[in-house]
Amino acid sequence: MIFDVLEKWGTYFKGEVWRKSFEFLLAATPATTDGEHKLLGDDVLARVMSYETKPLSASCSEAHRQFIDIQTVLSGEESVLWHPVGSLPIKAPYDSAKDAELYHLPSAKEGNPAKLILRPGLFAVFFPHDLHAPAIGESRSVKKVVVKISISAATLCGS
What we know:
Blueprint: E1 2-5, H1 16-27, E2 35-40, E3 44-52, E4 61-63, E5 67-75, E6 78-84, E7 90-95, E8 100-103, E9 114-118, E10 122-126, E11 130-136, E12 141-150, H2 151-155
């Protein structure tokens, strides 16, 4: 997981895949249309969405195998919990069509996650070894972008 301000993305990544992703994120505003935006074919796409955050009790954690997530909030704020893969019990097995495996969140006795507060101007990158539980909060309106980068595109030499 990486968590930083958008303007510092180049500290971590080089190449066209990452440049295109962060150009979109830096240009996106609360007026950006909800829906899917293809940035580099099926290998890099941005999903813009508006929703209400949910309480922790209604949340679960997720992990992906085929895509890396870059997440940023355009308006509002949400909490995102992080755990390493393998640290939580599986709630729903891996679904390749959704590229998601869901996990139960732990009780207070089982361990505390890292908690991020995602606000405009910040970004988080979640790799396949990062469990993340997004959209947590006290019924706040959020507009968010999740850029999905395929593992194959992210690992190509010079990408």
